[in-house]
Design brief:
Helix content is about 35%, strand content about 25%. The protein is α+β, with helices and mostly antiparallel strands. It has three domains: about 120 residues, Potassium Channel Kv1.1, Chain A (2-Layer Sandwich); about 120 residues, Potassium Channel Kv1.1, Chain A (2-Layer Sandwich); about 250 residues, Kelch-type beta propeller (Neuraminidase), CATH 2.120.10. The strands form eight sheets. It has a five-stranded antiparallel β-sheet, with no helix packed on it. A four-stranded antiparallel β-sheet has the order 15-16-17-18, with no helix packed on it. Helix 10 crosses helix 11 and helix 11 packs antiparallel against helix 12.
């Protein structure tokens, strides 16, 4: 018996409730041996599994009792007095009857029939026996044998027991097809004529399918049983069954199951399956590495899988995959970090991925290689607190409509050379006209030396109190607002459908609103960043699909899409621009800062003094109680401040 995986271990994990059934069928080939051919070969050679001898005074006929008893009623009646458990010996004194039986048996083994008034054959047999396709006769014989096995069991001479279920079978039918059963029936059973064979390592459901396939050459199986069936073919040394199983699985491989199929091929060393599945994996690589099936790869196979995909993805993507995979079971998988890290060009790892690593605290605590990698990365950036980025006054609007301000100009990035502690001093702006309209979806913007709030359809300005400035044509919820010259541009939001854009302008007491060209991707919770006659739409809501950066030309009223590789910016909280670079603060559970070069239209990786100061500013702002929105600008000309230090 081959050294193989225990079937009881394979089937211990219960299969999914939702199943898709497929037909597993051996392909018919006229060159193959039929079950009758195989029994005839046993009869001509060893006669190991011939269990009946018919004799007269001069001659004898050796045959397989189950073959004739299940197909011809004459033999069924003839054998009725014999005991199955004992060697069969049947004496027939009538020489004519004996000769008729002898001639019939020889012809039957050869796939033909002799007309005889006494030995009547079924009509179905007469129909198929003259067919040039001998598989039709084989199907008939197999059907009769299987009907006996599942029905009266008159000619079953051995029972296979798993301990929880018994399976009556015909010893000769199994033995002439698979060597495993020859061995177990002749050497491993305690007595030659013992009637029960014990197989404890096989799941009942799987053994039932294996026997069905042996008898009928076709079975309906659930897709989630393939691994168990592979283990069964290995256990029973059934190469032919294994080949049919591989052919069936190859046709069912998809991007949704290719990793599972790849692992099955690796476990049972099926090169044909492995090669086919690897093509599918490489074709859909980005979908595969972000799927649940990737996270379920066992430690035993993860290194081979990484070697397979590393040339197909960037080092940055591979590191993201590594963190995703390790997080799935950190206590057992954190030791694999070194394997991933050695395969990656660290210069290709983006800032957001380094941040992801740093925030995976359990990995940092348990894996020294990971901690050292992060330390080495951070040491090459932010050598000092020197930066020309000057922060202004941060304004925070609460959901109640109250507004607070804080001078952030003294804030510097915290580095190894800057140990200073900045304590924000928030002041509440006097507000004599609170509105019930404010909420978490309001947008606060600084412009015209005023604060503006965009709430639903209303545009409000703040000067000691909130006042109505005008009204938009479309509802503004989670929208992004940009100030260019004397015009506000309002884009996206939950009610804008496919990324609508409108402008708002007030001149000489007259309000002007205009609907402009819509961007391709619907957005909310993003940033609209102005730069030299263009508006850059960056980010998206975490509730919707990722959207690429789009650029709007104010002059031509057109949008274009930028196809870039960079961080997945979702749920933007704040954006600041310095020297043509936009620093975008995003995220919910953690604060992240992404840098985008507006002039060169590309993402900038790495950490520097500017990202450090923006991150500190965001951390001091976003945790404000009852936070709704924030913006940065210059001090208001007439603040009307009532001090309140938080």
């Amino acid at each position: 018996m081959q050294n193989c995986v225990s079937m009881s271990e394979v089937s211990a994990k219960r299969r999914k409730v939702t199943r898709t059934q497929v037909l597993l069928e051996a392909k018919s080939d006229s060159s193959e041996f039929t079950i009758t051919d195989l029994l005839q070969r046993d009869r001509n050679e060893s006669q190991e599994f011939c269990d009946l001898t018919i004799t007269n005074s001069y001659e004898k006929i050796i045959l397989h009792r189950c073959l004739f008893g299940t197909t011809i009623s004459f033999f069924d009646d003839l054998f009725s007095g014999l005991k199955i458990e004992e060697p069969g010996l049947l004496e027939i004194e009538d020489s004519n009857k004996f000769q008729n039986i002898k001639e019939f048996v020889e012809k039957f083994y050869n796939g033909s029939v002799v007309k005889d008034d006494e030995i009547c054959v079924p009509e179905k047999y007469e129909e198929v026996v003259g067919d040039t396709d001998k598989n039709a006769l084989d199907d008939f014989v197999r059907h009769q044998l299987n009907s006996d096995r599942l029905g009266l069991r008159k000619f079953c001479d051995v029972t296979i027991s798993t301990g929880t279920r018994n399976f009556p079978v015909h010893k000769s039918v199994l033995a002439v097809q698979f060597d495993y059963f020859v061995k177990i029936f002749t050497t491993e059973m305690k007595e030659k004529y013992q009637s029960t064979c014990h197989i404890s390592d096989v799941d009942d459901e799987i053994l039932a399918l294996v026997l069905d396939f042996i008898y009928t050459k076709k079975i309906w199986v659930n897709e989630d049983m393939f691994s168990d069936l592979f283990a069964a073919t290995d256990y029973f040394c059934m190469e032919a069954f294994n080949d049919e199983l591989v052919n069936c699985i190859v046709g069912l491989v998809s991007d949704e199951n290719c990793v599972e199929m790849w692992i099955t091929g690796k476990r049972f060393k099926s090169e044909i399956l492995i090669q086919h599945v690897e093509q599918e994996i490489c074709t859909h690589i980005l979908f595969v590495i972000s799927s649940k099936q990737f996270c379920n790869i066992d430690q035993l196979y993860i290194e081979d899988f990484v070697k397979l995909i590393k040339e197909k993805v960037s080092g940055d993507q591979l590191m993201q995959c590594a963190v995703l995979w390790m997080k799935h079971d950190m206590t057992k998988r954190f030791r694999k970090f070194g394997m991933f890290y050695e395969m990656i060009d660290t210069t290709s790892i983006s800032q957001s991925t380094w941040v992801l690593l740093m925030q995976t605290k359990e990995l940092m605590r348990h894996n020294l290689d990971a901690a050292n990698a992060v330390i080495n990365y951070t040491q090459q950036f932010v050598p000092s607190a020197e930066t020309e980025l000057a922060l202004g006054t941060m304004y925070v609007m609460c959901q109640s409509g109250d507004v607070y301000s804080c001078d952030m100009s003294a804030l510097k990035p915290k580095t190894s050379t800057n140990k200073s502690v900045f304590v924000p001093k928030w002041s509440k702006l006097k507000n004599e006209n609170k509105s019930s309209k404010f909420g978490q979806n309001s947008t606060l913007v600084y412009g015209f030396q005023k604060l503006f709030a965009f709430v639903d359809y209303d545009v409000l300005s703040f000067n000691e109190s909130w006042q109505n400035e005008g009204r938009l044509q479309t509802k503004c919820v989670n929208s992004a607002v940009a100030f260019v010259g004397d015009t506000f541009y309002v884009a996206g939001g939950s009610y804008f459908g496919n990324g609508g854009l409108q402008s708002y302008k007030k001149s000489y007491g007259n309000q002007q609103t205009e609907n402009l060209a819509s961007c391709i991707y619907g957005r909310s919770c993003f940033a609209l960043i102005p730069h030299q006659g263009y508006l850059f739409a960056v980010g998206h809501s975490c509730l919707y699909a990722k959207a690429p950066i789009e650029v709007y030309s104010i002059v031509s009223n057109t949008w274009e899409t930028l196809i870039l590789t960079g961080p997945d910016v979702c749920d933007v909280k704040l954006s600041l621009v310095h020297q043509s670079r936009a620093y975008i603060v995003y995220g919910n559970d953690t604060i992240q800062v992404a840098t985008f070069d507006l002039a060169r239209r590309r993402w900038v990786s790495g950490v520097n003094a500017e990202t450090g100061i923006v991150e500190r500013c965001a951390s001091l702002t976003l945790g404000f109680p009852d936070f709704a929105s924030c913006t940065m600008g210059q001090p208001l000309p007439k603040p009307g401040v009532a001090n309140l230090y938080l």
